[in-house]
Specification:
Helix content is 13%, strand content 51%. By secondary structure, it is mainly beta.
Length: 188
Amino acid sequence: MLKQYHRVGLPLIVTFLFLLCYSVSFAAGNNFSADVIMKNDNEIANGKIFVSGNKSRFEIEGMITISRMDKKVVWMLMADEKMYMEQKMIPSQGIPRSEAAENEVERVFLGKESVDNKECNKYRITVLDEGKKSSSLLWLAVDSGFPLKMASEDGTWSQEYRNLIIAAQPDHLFEIPAGYEKVSIPGM
């Protein structure tokens, strides 16, 4: 049933979902689609993201995650099996937005760099989470302020958007398709 978790790798999936929540918080109010390249240690996954206001959809290798901030829910769809799981949305914190995050303690401008042929301002962002400081890197597009790339300083993970298209997205992308069965997995 959950062959996608094994094919993509559970640690990468967990990191993906973790970063996806942050991406949506970056983009709340925006409408766009983009290709996403996620790296976690030695694993690389390519996906597609669609965002419409406070709704997002992420697709990777037969698995689809739909986040609905308006309903405070995340649906994980397994397309091959026509099944889905539902989880309550956990408010994200920690990775910075274009504006200062609630727990951000420092933002240092590191210069300009190009991401997907777009000029970006690169920052080191330090946050305080449960009494511990941690830093990550953020590349914001100069023209739109859009976060085109986020990464750990040590290079263990990154998320990058490519082929960004800012446009309205169809509503059906953010609903559970007809014919899908809800399943539960103990411990999740």
